[in-house]
Design brief:
The complex is a heterodimer of chains A (550) and B (58). Helix content of chain A is 75%, strand content 2%. A two-stranded antiparallel sheet of chain A has the order 1-2. In chain A, strand 1 and strand 2 form a beta hairpin. Chain B is an all-alpha fold. Chain B has a domain of 33 residues. Chain B contains two helices and no strands. The chains are: A mainly alpha (550), B mainly alpha (58). Chains A and B meet through helix 2, helix 5, helix 10, helix 14 and helix 17 of A and helix 1 and helix 2 of B.
Chain lengths: 550, 58
Amino acid sequence: MESMWMTLSVVVYLLVIGYLGYRGFKATNNVTDYLLAGRKTHPYIMAMSYGTTFISTSAIVSFGGAAGVFGMGLLWLTVLNIFCGIFLAFVFFGGRTRRMGLRLDAHTFPELLGRRFRSRFIQGAAALLIFVFMPLYASAVLIGAAKYLAAQLAMPYETALLLFSAIIALYVILGGMKGVMYTDALQGTIMLLGMTALLVLTYRALGGVSAAHDRLTALTPLVPAGLAKGGHLGWTSMPAFGSPLWWTLVSTIVMGVGIGVLAQPQLAVRYMTVKGPRELNRAVPVGGVFILMMTGVAFLVGALTNVYFHETSGKVAIAAAGGDVEAIIPMFIKASMPGWFAILFMLTLLSAAMSTISSQIHAMGTSAGRDFYEQALGFGRRKGRGGMLATRIGVVVGVLISVYLGYELEQAFGKTETEIVARGTAIFFGLCACAFLPMYVGGLWSRTITRAGAIAGMLGGAASSLFWMLFFHEKVSTALLLCGRIFGVRSLGIRIVEGKEVFLKAGPFIWAFVDPLIVGLPVAILLTVGVSLATRKFDDAHLTRCFGEK
Amino acid sequence: MLGIPDPSASAALALCVLSSLLCVVWGALKWNADDANAASDEVVRHWAEEETSVENEL
């Protein structure tokens, strides 16, 4: 019976979203309509549009599940999400990005960087990085939603993944890829309702806020031995400073996503679609509260699932979920929440996935067609000479790779107590930070960053980050096997001493657990600044075009 | 604080709320602040023309 209501709700939801998308498409089909729509855009709608693009099933299901393992330390990610992802992003990056985007007539993130530094190479290389690595992030979104669908409808994961991919494809065909702000606003409102209900119902079930936290603290002696050995001190505590778990939580999950959000291609373009800084300022309070209610609630509830599972099954969350981190939240909702909430949460996740995936598809398509094929390679700059075909091929290939990764990653890591989706998301965010953030910041604020400096920073940051991923970062280098095949050890941060693995350390740094961001971002900053100091500056005419008159 | 004994974890919870409050206060203070360096209507119209064509192509 519940499955029938769930199916019916999804169908009605898709029809409403499809109708709103169609209305939005018809209403903004020419320039005047587009400008009028932009000028009428309410700050609530702008903030919801940005927020739903930012927050996906990965944040709710997967990072929520990670909180079931790591505990409330994950709330530091919410702090960075709000402070960097909303406050810094809207107040400092938003206005400048929008002004420069308009002056340079840039419509994608690679195009903004390419025109700021007068480099087709930068535009093409940035597009290639986005196109190659965005599917990893898109697959994270798909996995999060498919896991929930599989748990709720008691179907195999593979079937749920295909079903969800088909729903997404239908949504895209219906015009969802345009990312119409009104559909985003509806989706954001559903997400807000769903997460508010989740917070209230969870605390009510566990006896109130302080009582629930007290009960979670009391479970500290039950931390699994493997996690305790890694530095876990309980679900209401941060891991021990400098321990492997601390490095994973702080350097990969908190900093990777928290800092990487500032250089996300699909988010940066959102600044350009608002009328002006007044609308950006007005979107800040809505965005701040929205992110608090999305990630803050997901992480609190994720940690508190340990209390529920312990009291109902005698096991902590990760054990109750059979080692499947992404199954923690879906299992908790299926077991503890009323039937109506399971339907509301299903719509919440559909909304989160659709709005994020539509922007990811948009970024993959424009990266392949407009930025790489048309601009970097120089083909089809005249209308109708293959640019549209390249964009469509880019969209199809990107989606197929995302679905394939969604299947393969689950096969490889699904039951291994590895928070693979959270890590996959963090890898993409971290790589974007290393490759783009120094030149993006330099391009927006400094007149002295040169083309050579920007290229050196982007290539150096991306290369050092990828090198660290392949050869040092234990989880990734072990999974990708390359380090083992070349050097006979699964990470260069590990030495074999008398047949046993020993992790190399330098002070608090355990190299095998230090995230690529910690290495790649400083390398990128040093290269961007250092090379810029030694190379020729842009002429005043170009700088005036970028920044306006002094 | 609120049953969370570890100061670094309770600080994270407090900062989540405070950073949201910062956003709310900022929005309230800057509700009507506008941009002195806003782009001209002509620049905006030109940009919107190209944006519409990108969207329609997609």
